[in-house]
Amino acid sequence: MPRRASLNVSLNSLRAFEAVVRLGGVLPAAQELGLTPSAISHQLKALEAAMPVPLLARQGRRAVATAPGAKLAGHLVAPFAAIDAAIEELRSGRQVMTISAYDTFAANWLLPRLNRFTQERPDIDVRLATSARVVDLERERIDCAIRLGPGGWPGVEAQRLVPQYFGPLVRADRQSERHVPRVVRVGLEAEWEPWPQWQAVSQQVQVTSRELVVSAVLAGTGAGVLDLILMSDKIANGEVAVTGARHPSLWSYHFVLPSGRPVPAHVRAFAQWIREEMARTEAFLLERMA
């Protein structure tokens, strides 16, 4: 039987190398692994000495992966993540799932419903990592993500959930008023075009983000064009009123998984749950705004 190539390489060296490439430097890798930078550098030297090609190129104080190094590091991410997850699960006796979502979606849609999932699956601990950017699921060791966009992201498998719908919303106690200003995002007045009855309103309150539109509508400052999926709970409880027809955007919500990684049973369970919850939300909006 031929000798396995990995037996000639230290597992600690491979872990140090994977962390340096994934985190972008020796110092963050040392912090994650609980080692000194000099210990990480020693592990890198030992690994490169065992390899026939350079794995890292030095750029000043930075170590950047060469093409062969990047390929090796890419093969190491999932196995080390699986090892870490298995050890953590054994230590805690519980399954842990890390979900990535953007902040506004997490606050307005996911968190108000997440107790339903945790009650159904008390054996699963959930970690919710929020960010406004598109995170690298492999590099940041994320089990799954909910993304909003056109799809087609590289390195992931994206399953479409529901379309994004927009509509003009106003706080319910201002719905009958004749004079309600429009809350307009700077440079995006065109997003009001599907609702000509609102374009006739001349007074505007201009803001710089969608989050500020939400705050302005809830404060009663004026009417705003908002994502109806995100605002569905506030529509249902009568806090806000829809004052025009729903309008689908070119984007959709997607459930996203790292490509090529086996999907654990608890992640599959969450995928099924969120599909059902999203479908329920969409059905409510279609019935309410038929």
Overview of the structural elements:
The protein is of the alpha/beta class. The protein has three domains: 5-81, Winged helix-like DNA-binding domain superfamily/Winged helix DNA-binding domain (Arc Repressor Mutant, subunit A), CATH 1.10.10; 92-163 and 251-288, D-Maltodextrin-Binding Protein, domain 2, CATH 3.40.190; 166-248, 3-Layer(aba) Sandwich (D-Maltodextrin-Binding Protein, domain 2), CATH 3.40.190. It is 42% helix and 25% strand. It has nine helices and eleven strands. Strands 3, 4, 5, 6, 7, 8, 9, 10 and 11 form a nine-stranded mixed β-sheet that branches. Strands 1-2 form a two-stranded antiparallel sheet. Helix 1 (11-23) crosses helix 3 (37-49) and helix 2 (26-33) crosses helix 3. The longest helix is centred in the N-terminal third of the chain and has 26 residues, at 67-92. It is elongated and about 75 Å long. The relative contact order is 0.12. The mean pLDDT is 89.
